Amino acid sequence: MIRINCPFCGPRDHSEFTYGGDGSIVYPELEAPREAWHDAVFLRENICGVQLETWQHVHGCRIWLTIERDTLTHEIHSVRPAHPGIAAALHSKEGAGT
Amino acid sequence: MTARRLESGGRIDRNQKVTFDWDGKALSGFAGDTLASALMANGETVLGRSFKYHRPRGIMSAGVEESGAIVTVGKDTRREPNVKATMQELYDGLTATGQNAWPNVRFDLGAVNGLFSRFFAAGFYYKTFMGLPPFEWGSGTGLWMQYEKLIRRAAGMGTASRAPDPDHYDHAHGFCDVLVVGAGPAGLNAALTAAEAGRDVLLVEQDFELGGDYLNDPAAEPKRAELVTAVRNAGVHILTRTTAFGLYDDGTAGLLEKVTDHLRNPDPSLPRQRFWTVRAGATILATGALERSIAFENNDRPGVMTAAAARVYLNRYGVLPGTRILIATNNDSAYGTAVDLEAAGAQVTVIDSRAEQNAGTSERVSIQYGLAPLEALGRPNITGVELAADTGNGWKPAGKQGCDLLLISGGWSPVVNLSSHRGAKPAWNAEQACFLPGQTKEPIFHAGSAAGIWPREACETSGVAAAQRATGEAFQTIAPGGWARTIKPVYEVRASDRVSKAFVDFQHDVTGDDIRLAHQEGFVSVEHLKRYTTLGMATDQGRMGNVIGLALMADALGKDIPDVGTTRFRPPYTPVAIGALAGRNVAGHFKALRRTPLHDWNLRHGATMTEAGLWHRPWYFAQDGETIDEAYVREAATVRETVGICDVSSLGKIAVQGPDAAEFLNRVYSNGFAKLPVGKARYGIMLRDDGMVMDDGTTWRLGETDFLTTTTTAHAGKVMVWFEELLQTRWPDLKVHVSSVSDHWAGVSIAGPKSREAISAILQDGTDISNEALPFMGVAGVTLKGNIHALIARISFSGERAYELYVPAGFGEAMMDLLWPSAKALGGCLYGMEALGTLRIEKGHVTGAELDGRVTIDDAGLGKMASTKKAFIGSALRQRPELLRQDRPQLIGIFPKDKSQRFKGGSILCAPDGTSGFGDGWITAVTHSPALGHWIGIGYISGGVEAWRGLPVIASDPTRSGDVEVEIVSPHMVDPEGVRVHG
Ligand SMILES: [Zn+2]
User: Name one GO biological process term (chain B) (predicted).
Assistant: First the structure.
């Protein structure tokens, strides 16, 4: 059981979340050529170590998260909202709070 | 072994006599006994038979490491095999039987296996039945499976009941700052220290009493009682009869609490067991250590047990396990046992394999040095021991000595299992001759003998120190060891010229010779050794045998133990019943049940329900005496003739709102949505990134920035997640909000030529829904009689003039109470999933069975819908050359050649000469079509209708209906021009 520290809900069991996919992929524009889409959809690194992943807190606040997780140890190094606007808002709120 | 209950002493309650049944015999014990201590007090010695050789086995220990007294407890549906008698609390009425023996454990015909034991050596099964010509690997598999059945029956380790489990189990969840596993001298002190530092502490003990080794020492009772009181007063949460069976990521621990296994008539409201998931900030493992045996000839005889166990039976249960006792040790720990046994009236001799003098023992205990047991004599019970003397270069026979109990102390193995679950590799400590817990970065701390610390005072101090480390208050560690004189490792005693049956793993009958044989045959890795010999693979999981096995392997390899390695322990530490894993998620609670707002209304009106994912939906509404086939055919025909009403509330419904909602839908759907006018609905198909169809449904534009998207019932959750993913991770600039409103609306489809009439009659104020006011694909807000606000959309799944009518969920029944009399008066009906299927198959409309994740929009015959003017999700990859091949399977309709024949869903479509292999296509759904008067189906076939028009095709279903000749037709089988839907 991995525990994921949701920025909104606090530390929760991973069974509340669903795994999305490789968080390092930048999906091309819809108009981009087939080759670009092929690479984005089908080519994946098989990382032993820290990788960027997306997860959704599907049985919680439903936020999509970008997570740095070590595939060898399951250690989670960072958790932030995938939406840059939400991440920035959260960051500034945290900044204001301290 | 001539054990007897002493007149006094022990922690048992002598005022509370308990009767129980052992193999049909009525016996008695006392409250506070284990099954093992009570059997011992009754003089029962042979309690089990071994796995391969059916050798008689008795009590070998007093705890979780027991490998001899493994019995079946309970009867009928509550029969549980492989219970360690040493762990089973005695209760009045308990029933236990021996296992792995016929007719019983005292006289077992299977013992003849022992005479042929050389054939049962390591790897025997594989060599005999799989590897030898003519049964080469693979080709002999069928035969192997026959033999395996016989071997399993002969070997069987008890049998479970085949009836459903009558008990129930709970899942429970816990949180704490500090989890302490084990309530002995170290664990109690750790829990107290952490609690006094203000931490929320959970203390877990597998025994039914707190105290661990204190319980085996009457002199320590005042101290134990004081500590337990202090721990309770400090607010520590305590779970007894609870085993921490596994440690997982981020401080998660799995616990199994045995709630009623010790009760004769438990409160039926109590679960039998509780499966706990605990999240701990820090974990202290005070799990103790287990005493090892030594391998020598017949070391498995009843009457041979660990030295510490004898002290437990004497001091905790008031049972003197023997009268003439020989204690064989290689370390200091057995001397306390010797003194206690002698004081209780036994005649005790200690043989210490070490050479030097030992200080501080009773004069009445005779001690001999440099000796070890070579062979246990007597059968089935031990009558004496042949001794061996250490020559400095092996062992030589050194005479015989009579005894009725042989106690062995071969050293101690800390219970390192739990931290090993976390990947902390145990490290061999040569000085203490044991594996110590490995290093981990996680907040896991060991205390007491689990950390290789032997004297009780040091264990207590180490408990305090571990708690201080766990709470970050101090960082002192206590060094392992603490005996006055060092242990001298002895793993096996044998004279070089003798073949011996010296057991390393009692549960799987693995001997020292087996390990040497495995080595000779080239199994040099410890992992291979384990699999080939089955060492450490039974419920013992290597507790007793692992270290000896490793030592013998190291010896054979000429290496040191750390160079041979150890296997990683994996959860569970002790067995966990499947029922506990399942908890309450059984039978009707196996998965959640979703009811539509019209569920009860449907049942009141005669619905037979069926499962659709988690949903229960009406399947058909049978009239008097109708079969399902008669009912759905009538329902479908009624829809095409007059009108039918069907509950479609389970469809997914997503409110898509915001300034960019139209743009968002336009990107998601393969067809255009940007220009959908307010008050209109559109059917849309969305693809995945890879160009395959994800889902379909209609979207209604309720306002400029307000859309209602419906999904299939099956994919409602998936589509919602997908929308959220796109908006949060890919297109964060879009100003769109999505919310699931599936449960907010009750929805029905009203289909058939008289549908408009049926609805018009229930509208308030005579609202106009004529073809002009509400044409095909029109959407409007209307008010039903009784002032019920509703949404109406003219959309059709059946190919008839049809509407979907949605009201807020709480008004669902009110809507039906208006609508149903109105439709009934027009000769209409209620219809269910089966007729819904008929109507859509007749029209060739796709649903889950056709959109199975492997089809493109072109395969489904809907390629023309995909926009060529815009890019959308999947538009790039749907153009992959492989997906554009003309010979891909394409959606088709299927008619039987002989119209009186029927075929089944799942049949393979083949050319007449090719009914083997994968065929050319498949049938996804079939129905009897009332409109056409015969069976029809839809499915896919390579190349589609064009490739097969007029050609004979076989629908092949070899295991059910056989081969049926069919013809391939357009999937639009009824009203292909779509006249009816626009009328
Ligand atoms: Zn959350």
Answer: tetrahydrofolate metabolic process
E strand spans, A1-98: 3-6, 10-13, 18-22, 50-56, 64-70, 76-81
User: A34 and B729: CB-CB below 8 Å?
Assistant: no
What mean pLDDT is predicted for residues B400-417?
Answer: 96
Domain B294-409 in the same topology as domain B167-290+412-488: yes
| Chain A residues within an 8 Å CB radius of B871 | 29-31
If one counts every other C-beta atom within 10 angstroms of the C-beta of residue B120, the result is: 18
CA distances from A73 to B251, B440, B442, B934 (A): 13, 11, 11, 61
> Cβ–Cβ of A30/B689 closer than 8 Å?
no
Taking the C-alpha atoms of residue B827 and residue B848, their distance in angstroms, rounded to an integer, is: 31
Say which residue the tokens 């003089």 belong to: B43
Assign domain B885-969 to its CATH superfamily. Aminomethyltransferase beta-barrel domains (2.40.30.110)
State in words which class domain B167-290+412-488 has: alpha beta
- The whole-model pTM stands at 0.90
- The predicted structure's pLDDT at residue B119: 56
Q: How many residues does chain B have?
A: 983
What CATH code is assigned to B652-740?
Answer: 3.30.70.1400
Confirm if B866 and B670 have CB atoms less than 8 A apart.
Answer: yes
Q: Domain spans of chain B?
A: 1-162, 167-290+412-488, 294-409, 498-566, 596-649+744-838, 652-740, 885-969
Distance (angstroms) between ligand 1 centre and the Cα of B276 equals: 23
Q: What is the Å distance from ligand 1's center to A70 Cα?
A: 21
Element (H, E) at B718: helix B716-725
CATH 3.40.47.40 fits A3-95, yes or no: no
Q: Could you tell me the CATH superfamily of domain B294-409?
A: FAD/NAD(P)-binding domain (3.50.50.60)
pLDDT tier for residue B52 given thresholds of 50, 70 and 90: confident
Strands A10-13, A18-22: parallel, antiparallel or unpaired by DSSP? unpaired
Chain A residue closest in CA terms to B280? A3
Tokens standing for residue B222: 């005042």
Q: Identify the sign of the CA torsion B169, B171, B176, B182.
A: positive
Q: What pLDDT is attached to residue B133? A: 43
Residues B675, B869: Cα–Cα separation, whole Å? 13
B449: closest CA among B577, B367, B331? B331
One-letter amino acid identity for B310? A
Residue B252 and residue A41: Cβ atoms within 8 Å? no
What separation in Å is there between the alpha carbon of B874 and the centre of ligand 1? 30
CB of B735 less than 8 A from some CB of A: no
